[in-house]
Amino acid sequence: MDRLRSLEVYVAVIDGGSFTAAATTLEISAVMVGKYIKALEQSLGAPLIQRTTRHMQMTESGRAFYAEARQVLEQWRQACESVEGLQSTPHGLLRITAPMTLGSCMVAPLVAAFLVAYPQIRVELILNNSSVDLLQDGFDAAFRIAHLEEMDLVAKPLQAYEMLICASLEYLQLNGTPEKPADLAHHRLLVHSSWTQRFNWALKEGNTEIPWPEHWVMKSNDGPALRLAALAGAGILMQPRFLVADDLASGALVSVLGDYLPSPKPVHLIYAPQRARLPKLRAFIDFATQRLGV
């Protein structure tokens, strides 16, 4: 039995909450996950996980073993990175996370160009609008939108996230063009599901902030999907400039309410300072800031 792999499987099971989640993370079958756990329990002579048809929880032994297993895996990662840091040519796996729209429209093309420039590096790009713990979840770097609270991470400023409001000419001809934010109450709106009280895009009228109306005809967690709906004439869209710039240039979409746009939000590339010595991460930081930096 590969003991280090067994530790990795066990930690993945606990972190993911199920054998299936661990199998997806590790790209092996759930049956193989079960075999690793069974072999590990037999080797230790103690059950680590209690399972029923609906629930899974660690035993007392399992909780103690989990804490030590995480520490062993972290020490192994640090040992590998200490050797990797001595190599002159950037290589290896980079794990990067970003919000979905920013990730698909800006970060993904950046990563593609980076892979061409550094063929010995592999990148796992995870797009997710949920907040992740950079170190806990094993990411090398993350792209973040919004003002950052104090943290033990380095934050490189990138181009700001600037929003535009637009609709198709056909929609505006049929429904009229809004002249002020209050007019949006009478329009069909396409909204992003990540807009919450914690992360919102209030319109600006002088010194007054005006919340984006709560009614909508389509809500999605994917900006490009909302863009397609706007192009089809389904309603008014507020999305980042980089997503709709080509449509505005071609006339497929028309900008509205330009005097009331929300204030841009800062974008940062964040990473742990102790990992910046890795050639693969250093190369990506330099590449990203050169192309997207302010």
TrEMBL record:
**Classification via SUPFAM superfamilies:** Periplasmic binding protein-like II, Winged helix' DNA-binding domain
Report whether Transcription shows up as a keyword of the record.
yes
Decide whether keyword Transcription is in the record. Answer: yes
* Coiled coil regions, renumbered to chain: none
Q: Which residues form the HTH lysR-type domain?
A: 1-59
BP GO terms, sorted: DNA-templated transcription
Entry keywords, A to Z: DNA-binding, Transcription, Transcription regulation
Q: What GO annotations for molecular function exist for this entry? A: DNA-binding transcription factor activity; sequence-specific DNA binding
Supply the InterPro entries for this chain.
Answer: LysR-type_TF_proteobact-type (IPR058163), LysR_HTH_N (IPR000847), LysR_subst-bd (IPR005119), WH-like_DNA-bd_sf (IPR036388), WH_DNA-bd_sf (IPR036390)
Family per similarity comment:
Belongs to the LysR transcriptional regulatory family.
**Protein name as it appears in the record:** DNA-binding transcriptional regulator, LysR family
